[in-house]
Amino acid sequence: MSSEPVFLEFGQKPDEPGAIVRPGARQAYPDEVRERLATDAGEMVARYPQDRSALLPLLHLVQAEDGHITPAGIEFCAQVLDLTAAEVMGVATFYSMYRRTPTGDYLVGVCTNTLCAVMGGDEIFASLAEHLDLDGSGTTDDGRVTLEHIECNAACDYAPVVMVNWEFFDDQTPASARRVVDDLRSGRPVTPSRGAPMCTFRETARILAGFPDTRPGANDGPPGGPTLAGLRAAREGGMQAPAPAPTFDSEVTAPESTAPETTAPETAVPETTAPATAAPETQPSARSDEEA
């Protein structure tokens, strides 16, 4: 066995794709941009009992400014929340919704987890990758569309699912997905399966930061048909969930005691009169009806 030491280098490689700190990345904001962001950040931080709790929405705010996370955004968040850049960087690189590279106006994600893949998700992704003229970062030459794989987004009842800027496009096929990206690139209005008409990736990031979404239909719920199909089939078939198993307490009965009964000798207890105490006054709640 060799006794020579082995050198192991940890951390991200300098040339690794998706590095936040890289040549050409924005390093600092101009004064007018910083002032505008500081106004928005002050409103956001005021919503939380601890300033550092606002880190996630603040990262969406700087992503709305740059289209992805940059060293300038990391430094801004760190200064606003009195954190180190390393702390902010650790959060920004943990969550996949924070982009590390420039992103197109429309981030098109194809779910290729198990169910969507079985239903055609892999075929949809391959079809879009061939249909679009993508650069090394998965973005079209015109900067309009970025294509990526995404993990499950809890819409398995509408599989296969494509998401554009986190809006759902249900029950997709390769042909329908190609039509969506073609309409997006041409500037034609596109409306997802549920919700409001599409807005750009940066506009979506600002909404995720916590600012109002004023688009008509933004808060409409899903159709619900496939989601409730199993419940309807169970009711039509007269199916019911099994009765819950008896609890431990109801199954176990304490054994009867065989020891002879004994009676403790009576002892005289002197009568005492407890001092009178006033009942504590009930204070009205400090919370208003609106806060309750």
TrEMBL record:
According to the record, the residues making up region (Disordered) are: 212-231, 238-292
User: In its keyword annotation, does this UniProt entry include Iron?
Assistant: yes
Residue stretches of biased makeup (Low complexity)? 251-286
Tell me its cofactors.
[2Fe-2S] cluster
Give this protein's Gene Ontology molecular function annotations.
Answer: 2 iron, 2 sulfur cluster binding; metal ion binding; NADH dehydrogenase activity
Q: Which UniProt keywords apply?
A: 2Fe-2S, Iron, Iron-sulfur, Metal-binding
Family to which this protein belongs: Belongs to the complex I 24 kDa subunit family.
- NCBIfam families in the record: PRK07539.1-1
Q: Could you identify this protein by its name?
A: NADH-quinone oxidoreductase subunit E
Natural source organism = Dietzia psychralcaliphila
Taxonomic lineage per UniProt?
Bacteria, Bacillati, Actinomycetota, Actinomycetes, Mycobacteriales
